[in-house]
Amino acid sequence: MSTDYQRAREELGRKLRELRIECPAGRLTGIQLAQRLGWPQSKVSKLENGRQTPTDDDLRAWTEAVGQPDAFAELHSRLRGFESHVRSWRRQLAAGHRPVQETWNALVAESRVLHMWENNLVSGMLQTADYARYVFERYTDLRSSPRDMEEAVRARMKRQEWLYRPGKRLNLLMWEGALWARVCPAEVLVAQLDRLSGVVGMDTVRLGILPLDADLRIPPGNPFTMLDDRLVVVEDWHAELWLDDAETIALYRRVWDTFAESAVFGTEAQQVIARVRRSIKV
Questions:
Q1: What local confidence, expressed as pLDDT, does residue 65 receive?
Q2: Which of 50, 133, 188, 252 has CA 20 to 30 A from 278's CA?
Q3: Superfamily of domain 3-84
């Protein structure tokens, strides 16, 4: 969990404690409040100490129990503010992959320049429909989310129209290991590698490949996308982290630039892709 997220959760807990102590009808103990709410006393303690994230229902029940229902609006705003930075896959995928893809479509549409780092899969910005379908299937099985692969694929393919609009620029770095990932049948992977090779030289795409034998100045870390200089989205197994403070964005740009020092571009990138393609037995 990010430090900023935890700090915000602890601050929300302090506010909840203040409301309990300053109850208009007289100070309540944690045990007394738990009894009013029908909760275990441990839940009150965890919320006040920032060890559990409250829900909207928790906040509403708390403010009503301490006789200060007007405080709900502020608490709700605080919760939305820091929850927006940690977007759990469980919540995002409750309605399937298509809504997530449409959110990304909107983010990308309002961006001029993308800087992306991918170390485990081919970037969604350059995936073929068949490759994307297998990727969605793998994640759907993992997370037991609704099976809306076809709708998700269509949404992802629509996002790629951005690549053909004037004034746009995709700066994509990929570790060679991502090219070898067998998340799909061999014939699908071959077609995907052909697609990658074909975008080298596009006016709107700068594709760099970090060969497996390249000297890395920093570890590969997690995949991330930087949208202009306003937002970085980092993908992890449990959630996406949306990071929008200037210092963090600057850090991720330094990370991207550091990876770029180990990458090959143009013809050399095509040669790496071709080497991987030749190794695949169809």
A1: 97
A2: 133
A3: lambda repressor-like DNA-binding domains (1.10.260.40)
